[in-house]
Specification:
This is Ankyrin repeat protein. It contains 11 helices and 6 strands. It is an alpha+beta fold. The strands form 2 sheets. It has a 4-stranded antiparallel beta sheet with strand order 1-2-3-4. Strands 5-6 form a two-stranded antiparallel sheet. About 30% of the residues are buried.
Length: about 210
């Protein structure tokens, strides 16, 4: 009887391991209250497995990295999602269309807007150094008007706001509520950011007067 019980336990353990191996390409991670199904590229991205990433991106067609019931996301979005600097840098050498990538989730995010939404100064800087549009991209069909600098202000991240200003972020834009960057800073009580924006606008005014 003991031999039979041990045999049954061994068989059960074997099939559990087998099922976990089969499920590995579809591993799920719950981060920021959203569950995404990771495809092989997404798993490699999360694990910073550069050899696998290079192999998967070597083909003619670009594979997706992760998705859910409604959306699928590429290597750029996934690199920002998992805060993977090396992955993002490699993707930037592989694909040059970063200003044409608009993510059809509920926000209509661009890559820079997404980095700012996550308050990631490091990745935002890398994107800006590679020529991404500092103001994001808004099509006339977007439900929401989401801009990088508005996300940086909403997070009260003055370092990120400074970075965007250095790349000449537009301070006259308005979000879907009609707020300018300065109005948003006042609304949320981000006094340090508000002071920075006022100084920046004054400097721009002086520069314009001196140029005239």
């Amino acid at each position: 009887m003991k031999i039979i019980n041990w045999t049954l336990l061994f068989i059960a353990a074997f099939f559990c391991c087998f099922d976990s191996v089969k499920a590995n390409p579809l591993r799920q991670d719950t981060i920021r209250d959203v569950t995404y199904q990771l495809y092989p590229l997404g798993v490699a991205c999360r694990d910073n497995d550069m050899a696998t990433i290079k192999r998967l991106l070597a083909g003619k067609d670009e594979p997706m990295a992760m998705g859910n019931d409604f959306y699928e996301f590429d290597i750029f979005y996934t690199a920002i999602y998992f805060d993977k600097e090396d992955v993002l840098k490699y993707a930037l050498t592989r694909y040059k269309d970063i200003n044409n990538r608009l993510y059809s989730d509920e926000y209509g995010l661009t890559l820079l807007t997404y980095a700012c939404k996550l308050s990631n100064v490091k990745l935002a800087r890398i994107l800006l150094e590679h020529g991404i549009d500092v103001n994001g991209y808004q099509s006339p069909y977007d439900t929401y008007k989401v801009y990088p600098i508005m996300e940086a202000i909403a997070n009260n991240n003055i370092e990120l706001v400074k970075l965007l200003l250095e790349y000449h972020a537009d301070l006259n834009i308005k979000d879907s509520n009609g707020n300018t960057p300065l109005a948003l800073a006042k609304e949320i009580g981000a006094k340090e950011v508000e002071d920075l924006l006022l100084q920046w606008k004054e400097q721009q005014k002086n520069n314009a007067n001196n140029a005239g």
